[in-house]
Amino acid sequence: MPVFDDQSILDDRQTVEYVSRRDAGNVTASVSNAVSYGISKREVMASNGRYQSGDVVWTLPRSQVLALGPKVGDAVLAEGVKYTVIGQDISAFASFVKLTTRNLVIAYGLQQSVTILRPNHGLPTPTADRSPQFVSSGPFVAAVQEMGRSPAEFLERRANEVRYTIVLEAQAADLTHECLIVWNGLQLQIESVANVDRLDFLQQVECVYRGE
Is 200 domain-assigned? Predict the structure, then answer.
């Protein structure tokens, strides 16, 4: 696709929603004159594995989005589809911002929903059995895959272990083994967490469910 300095002369312009990810709560703004195109093979090859076929490049007017602080993890919402920012190019001489994005639902099969339970250690009054109290967050879109089943001894009783790999989009840097993931009514214990494709907002979580 040819590069133009004046964003207003490009065809297929549309108005989109830009979501700026913030710890204190996301900020959403309407952006006009947005243009998108499928990433080229040249751009994929030059990215050293960061980008892949199917990614979408958005160019947004600099005057409308620069104040939002465009960054990886933000999102462009267009025609009901969420494109998550995985790369950015903000030139000091261009009138637009170039953002490389990915539809995470399609790229990673995020067709399911999970909830995260985090222990609230700050609650002043513990439960009667002194079990941890949890704060729920979500739901988050996710892909859940069963990895295997086996019998096991757990707390001196026989239990069935079912292991799962879950990929989810969440600001989940604080996920620990104390947290639980709830899926289809099951409470899954977290064993390990790793980023997917070098994206800090996309986690691969190894979990186990122990039941009768």
Answer: yes
Q: Which residue segment(s) compose the domain that 154 sits in? A: 112-211
Alpha-helical runs (H) found in 30-165: 41-46, 62-65, 104-108
The answer for 128, left when phi > 0, alpha when psi is -120 to 50, beta otherwise, is alpha
3-state DSSP helix/strand/coil % of the chain, to nearest 5: 10, 55, 35
Q: Tally the residues of the chain.
A: 212
Same domain, 96 and 168: no
Token duo for residue 201: 């907002």
Q: What is the CATH number of the domain that holds 127?
A: 2.40.10
Residuewise pLDDT in 10s, the chain (212 residues): 444 444 444 457 899 999 998 877 789 999 999 999 999 999 999 998 889 999 999 999 999 998 888 999 899 999 999 999 999 988 767 889 999 999 999 999 999 999 999 887 665 555 555 555 888 888 888 999 999 887 655 445 556 789 999 998 865 556 788 889 999 999 999 999 888 887 878 889 999 998 76
How many domains does the chain contain in total? 2
